[in-house]
Amino acid sequence: MAKAYSDDFRRKVMQAIELDGLKKCEASLLFNISRNTINLWFQRKAETVDVMEIGSIGNFDLAVVSYLLNCASTKEQLLKMCQAIAIHLKPDGRFVSLNNNLELLPEFYDKHKKYDIARRCA
């Protein structure tokens, strides 16, 4: 099974390459990770769009996001995320968000059943 790296570690490696000018092969040796892992991180970055910078892609009746809003670090970021989504909604459009409450106790997991959402402890 592949080793899971923290987001901080990933950012540190990518910053060393992008900002400090380290070559990928040098970063691989310095940080003791495979070159394939580094390439995968850069590929994912190239394929990923920041919701706050997405620009106009059309108007929709419904916008659905999962586990996005809880990624906002500040109230300002949360507002920008919601505004970026709102500009893509038609006047009567709806915005649905599914987020995870990490502090929800297991005895409350069954409260989601009426919404066809199942939660369990692994």
Task: Give the secondary structure arrangement, pairings included.
Blueprint: H1 7-18, H2 24-31, H3 35-47, E1 60-66, H4 75-86, E2 89-98
Parallel strand pairs: 1-2
Model description:
The protein is an alpha+beta fold. The protein is 37% helix and 14% strand. The protein has helices at 7-18, 24-31, 35-47, 75-86, and strands at residues 60-66, 89-98. A two-stranded parallel ribbon has the order 1-2. Helix 4 (75-86) links the parallel strand 1 (60-66) and strand 2 (89-98). The protein is extended.
Sheet-strand content, in percent, reads 5-15%
Q: Quote the average pLDDT.
A: 85
How many beta-strand segments? 2
Number of helices: 4
The major sheet is characterized as:
2 strands, parallel
Low-confidence stretches: none
- Outline type: extended
Could you say which structural class the secondary elements and strand pairing correspond to? alpha+beta
- Helix-strand pattern, N to C? HHHEHE
End-to-end C-alpha gap:
18 Å
Within the largest sheet, what's the order of strands?
A: 1-2
Q: Taking Cα atoms only, what radius of gyration do you get, to the nearest Å? A: 19 Å
Q: Helical percent range?
A: 25-40%
